[in-house]
Amino acid sequence: MATRKKTNQQKPGVLKESVRKAFDQLQQEMNVTFNQAPLLYQAFTHSSYVNEHRKRFYTDNERLEFLGDAVLELSVSHYLFMKYPEMSEGELTKLRAAIVCEPSLVQFANELNFGSYILLGKGEELTGGRTRPALLADVFESFIGALYLDQGLESVVKFLEVVLFPKVDIGAFSHVMDYKSQLQELVQQKNNGALTYEIIDEKGPAHSRTFVTRVSLADEELGIGNGRSKKEAEQQAAQLAIRKLQQAMED
Q: Which residues does UniProt mark as catalytic (predicted)?
């Protein structure tokens, strides 16, 4: 009579009910529902937690982070390409780098309170891992990777349309592309007079206002910009003014 061979295999670890409820709450707050909940759990599982629970067969988020990094860069690249047709390749690259850099990702993660949901080992917890910038940035990327695997690129873009893209629209990263300062320097080099910015129109309802700004030099109009904020409209106007002045110098 054949006997069954004994094995030491164990089923993958099951999270505590309180932890699963916490992740349910997170999904409600983000208005995102995962079809495969384990992917969401994995996105928040740090390697230190896996190392302290080796017999439970948990999987850390490092591979999801790798995937999420690529998906995030693609999504942001496509958005910027469509949003700013006037930008050069170099300008798009510079702006994208500011959006997907660690400090920005940490800000996004903190706004979503991701730090509270990370599964950490005791040692990492005691040394402040929950607020460590690199760790928070990694979790944001791993979440993007998990969402992509669970629901595809369209859902990732919808998520970013709420969390990230509006910040670009209101000029949160305009310091990277500070056209107003560039224009000021260009004008000072030629000693052509003083620049003035003027709001010439406001469109749309109060909650979705579009501003139209004109920049002039010695009463000569140099450019007109549009934006969701006054700052964004001024930056766009300054960018157009720079092109106009540079073209005039070339001619």
A: 69, 141
Taking the mean position of all CA atoms in its chain, how far away is CA 30? 15
Place of tokens 């139209």: 212
Please give the structure tokens belonging to residue 149: 């695997």
Give the residue numbers of the binding site for Mg(2+).
65, 138, 141
Encode pLDDT of 62-93 as tens digits. Answer: 999 999 999 999 999 999 999 988 788 888 89
CATH number for 17-169: choose from 1.10.1520.10, 3.40.50.720, 1.10.260.30, 2.60.40.1120.
Answer: 1.10.1520.10
Which of the following is catalytic: 141, 150, 232, 234?
141
Contact 243, 234 (CB under 8 A): no
Q: What is the pLDDT of residue 10?
A: 38
Q: Which two tokens stand for residue 225?
A: 């910009």
Q: Where in the chain is the domain with CATH 3.30.160.20?
A: 179-250
Least confident range from 134-148, 153-167, 188-202: namely 188-202
Greatest Cα pair distance, the chain, in angstroms, is 101
Residue in 69, 150, 232, 234 annotated catalytic: 69
24 given a catalytic annotation? no
In this predicted structure, the answer to whether residue 16 has a pLDDT above a threshold of 60 is yes
- What global pTM score does this model have? 0.71
Say yes or no to pLDDT of 19 above 80: yes
Among residues 138, 126, 239, which one has the least CA distance to residue 184? Answer: 239
Mean pLDDT value of segment 44-73: 90
Regarding the domain delimited by 179-250, which CATH topology (the fold level of the hierarchy) does it fall under?
A: Double Stranded RNA Binding Domain (3.30.160)
Every domain range in the chain assigned CATH 1.10.1520.10: 17-169
